[in-house]
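Risk register update: the risk of archive-format incompatibility is retired. Evidence:
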Amino acid sequence: MVHLLLAVIYLSFISLGLPDALLGSAWPSMYVRLGVPVSFAGIISMIIALGTVVSSLQSGRLTRRFGPGKVTAASVGVTALALLGFSLSGSFWQLCLWAVPYGLGAGAVDAALNNYVALHYASRHMSWLHCMWGVGASLGPYLMGHALTSGRDWPVGYRWISLLQFGLTALLFFSLPLWKRPDGGTREAVSSRPLTLPQTLRLPGVRAMVIAFFCYCGLEQTASLWASSYLTLEQGLPPETAAGFASLFFLGVTAGRGLTGFLTLAFSDRQLVRGGQGIAALGILALLLPVGGEASALAGLVLVGLGCAPIYPCFIHATPDHFGAENSPSVIGVQMAGAYVGTCLLPPLFGLVASRISPALFPVYLTAVLLIMVLAHERLLRTGHSRSGS
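Archived output:
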């Protein structure tokens, strides 16, 4: 039963990834048909992120009241409905309306699943589970690219992903009895009242960790949302080709997290985060190179993805060690909120940079965000609050 539950959680992480890169891969075609500026992708992204901030801040209370299984199943169902709404939308304002449940569904399930896995499973499972997120995030742009190249257009791509999400919702509801069984994890949360937001933010190191999450998810979402447009506008690739090539970023994330699961047997969370930050810096450097053209840009996207691979799962897995298992539900909820604020603000900010200055600044922008993340993570480590030196 324990292994069956783990398989269900793996599928849930695939579900988390499926919608994440759809907007970025489809936008070069969407904004033309909708008759809006290219920068308007940032508005939709911001609405989705605001919804995830709200639901992630409530995730600790929701999980304590209903349990992680019910929260996961209901949230995936809401996301499936929102994706179906996207596929039926014929105007920009309709997309904005459906972006609200899109975000609300994502935030609660993300925080609930990450806390559950951080408490009950080893670091390698966190990496492999987030590898499954990468599988979903890679599959989404592939399906969207197929819809575009086959002449079916972007609503069909959204409809395909929606049907997959509805199927997973049914599976999750059937799996609810599995979540009631203890899984033999090594770290159990102490039963206590959830911390308030001010109490959580007063824990030593929490603010630095929130900044690190803010920057990481802002960097990841910026790369996801704007890589396709960058390849189209700066490298001259056709939109349908750029949609497929942009998935290389998520292929790098996916392959990297599969490898990270094995590397956790030899390296600590701290070491893997630092290594990932270094590889991401190399990828951004490849994007900055004036020579190499398309090949250099594609290699850079893969390297940025590989570098991002260990950072998020290792951040999450180290949370109970840094702040205590009894505090992890509240801390992870705040971390998710910080992450989604980054997702909300940083991609549309680059949209303004791209429209008013130049989309060629894409790698420069990523460099600045990466640097702030590195500084915040090092500050967290200097607090000395980690219980295991992870």
